[in-house]
Amino acid sequence: MTRSSLGLLCVLTAVTALVACSSSDPKVAWEGDGAPVTSMEPDAVADAVPRPDPILRAGNTSPYSIDGVEYRVLPSAEGYSKKGVASWYGTKFHGNKTANGEVYDLYLATAAHRSLPIPSYATVTNLWNGRQVVVRINDRGPFHPDRLIDLSYAAAVKLGFVDKGTAEVLVETITLAGIDDLRDSETGEYRYLQLGAFANPDTADGLRESVAAMVDAPVNVTPVDAGGQRLHRVRVGPVADGEQLRYLRDLLMSRGYSPGLALP
pLDDT grade, residue 186 (50/70/90)? Predict the structure, then answer.
């Protein structure tokens, strides 16, 4: 079973030789993976819970190259729907870092994909038996040309194809509101002030209007799905630099408003 990832793995360039490589580049793993000694039952596998995590630079280098083949990360996961072959990976990678630095846990519903932004979430349906699982995509791969997605051992258990090794699947991404795309942001570079998040959109719009009347910067309301609830965030920005950000915070505080939360 072929498994590929970013992280701390190295490229297998021959049957018996490993070639050392930089930790900043994608790597291709080796054959010989397997299931844990203690197996799981499908009912014991919990779906991943979608949450609006920001899309960071980690794991989203684009383009990137594997064995001379160039791959590109999609600008958005929204609307992605594709049929293809799924494989799975297990003990060989359990405890290793994934493409975005998370630790791979074979007992969680996660997956590797070549082009979807990391992290993103998808419903994967086994087209042979109709079973479904929701996975968190946090790794890169598989780089086998005939495979679409590499699922964790747990996800494969829930879909019922561990023994077979592969299955025909449908991958459909889950759209979430409020995902910040920070792939182009420098670490520590703050360009926004978040003034609050409100369940009532009218409250958010009222704050936006009052703040927009006093600041020389964009003020927007954007939805976010958090804890199963739709909230409406009020943000000022982007601003030019840290000096303007400090000026805006001081101005808001002098008018009796919260100084806000600085964000990249």
Answer: low
